[in-house]
Design brief:
heterodimer, A: 195 residues, alpha+beta, 2 domains, 8 strands, B: 187 residues, mainly alpha, Arc Repressor Mutant, subunit A, elongated
Chain lengths: 195, 187
């Protein structure tokens, strides 16, 4: 699709209103550069680009949780190896989607502990084979309405949604397999993963 | 911090305090590590915001950066290592972001991804913008200043410049494309 002034202006308006711009397939490098430049210009406006207090508070909590689970990682893979991936969309999804995504030889249901409950109803879906996930490099996936990333570390896999809800809802996610718990901010859905 | 919106300078100055760091070789308990990450949130957010230019994307990407960074980093990391790791993850996350939005090879288009991060993002971003605007013809510079730095609507810009709204959009289009190419040359 060729770029044009109307299309670019819609993008600019989104930036000026601090909205997430629509995803638009672009035809060329100039179109991309124009949008990157627009982002840079908008960010230079005095007072722009400061995180909200709410976001900072959410991040404080998330970081606390992530560091906690990282510290809790076992040093050696002494547990039985896991061969399946499960992904569960967090409750509170703006679109009301509640799905669980799994892969391969699932032998048991996840059993989230207190404070980790996520989605009561969901279905398991195949996403990726564990063997297809490189260590430490996020891999994007898409499954119907759910789009996100998988990050593998050892035999543990974390899931992070790429979906922005636009609705300002705060979501919580747990990773039952590793008793992981993550809190993510508005517009970012946590995904549960079991490998 | 939100009360500071009217005063860019004050806001920027206050951010330096937010990201102030402890001694690099302080002990690394879990609380210390948590705190060390937490002190970088504002700086990483600003770094990302200055590249994506909107709050929802900046919040999403900042959260992604921290989640990825924490899960990919050992626990006994020093603060300087942690900081440079965060910026590195931020750069790759941004490259992925542009690639997702605009499929064709966005990674190599964004020169920002390869340049070393500045410790104080926004003053540096403002300087970059000033430098960029200075390369543009007057009419281009004017429309970008009105729209972006002063937040004028298309209609207000049209009145200010005595143009039609359609002409303002065309002028804005040409100005952003020209500025984008200039940015490519400057990098």
């Amino acid at each position: 699709m060729n770029d044009d002034p109307e299309q670019l202006d819609r993008h600019v308006e989104d930036l000026l209103q601090d909205r997430k711009p629509e995803r638009t397939p672009l035809s060329d490098e100039d179109a991309l550069r124009a949008r990157q430049t627009a982002a840079m210009l908008h960010a230079a406006k005095p007072g722009a680009g400061l995180p909200s207090k709410e976001f900072l508070e959410r991040m404080q909590g998330s970081i606390h949780g992530w560091v906690g689970e990282q510290s809790a990682q076992p040093q050696a893979p002494s547990r039985p190896s896991r061969r399946s991936l499960l992904l569960t969309a967090a409750a509170g999804l703006a679109a009301g989607v509640a799905a669980a995504v799994g892969f391969d030889r699932l032998t048991r249901a996840p059993a989230p502990g207190p404070g980790q409950a996520l989605v009561d109803k969901g279905t398991w879906k195949r996403v990726k084979a564990l063997a297809d996930l490189p260590q430490g490099t996020p891999i994007a996936f898409r499954l119907g309405a759910i789009e996100g990333f998988l990050i593998r570390k050892g035999d543990e896999v974390k899931g992070l949604s790429a979906v922005c809800t636009h609705m300002g809802c705060t979501t919580q996610a747990a990773i039952p397999a590793g008793a992981h718990r993550a809190r993510t901010g508005r517009g970012l859905l946590g995904l549960s993963v079991a490998a | 911090m939100r009360e500071d919106k009217t005063s860019g300078a004050a806001v920027f100055a206050s951010q330096a305090k937010v990201v102030a760091l402890p001694q690099p070789d302080a002990p690394h308990g879990r609380d210390h590590l948590t705190w060390a990450y937490q002190t970088h949130v504002t700086a990483i957010y600003q770094y990302i915001y200055s590249r994506v230019g909107n709050r929802p994307d900046a919040e999403d990407l900042t959260a992604q950066v921290f989640m990825k960074a924490i899960s990919g980093m050992r626990n006994d990391v020093s603060v300087p290592e942690l900081r440079s790791w965060l910026y590195r993850v931020a750069q790759t996350t941004l490259a992925d972001h542009w690639r997702e939005y605009y499929a064709e090879g966005a990674g190599e288009l964004d020169e920002d991804v390869t340049r070393p991060p500045a410790p104080r993002e926004n003053p540096e971003a403002v300087h970059r913008v000033d430098t960029l605007l200075a390369t543009l013809p007057e009419s281009y510079r004017r429309v970008l200043e009105l729209r972006f730095l002063r937040g004028y609507s298309v209609r207000e810009t049209a009145q200010e410049l005595s143009l039609s709204e359609a002409n303002v959009k065309v002028l804005q289009f040409r100005a952003l494309n020209r500025a984008g190419r200039e940015r490519g040359r400057m990098s």
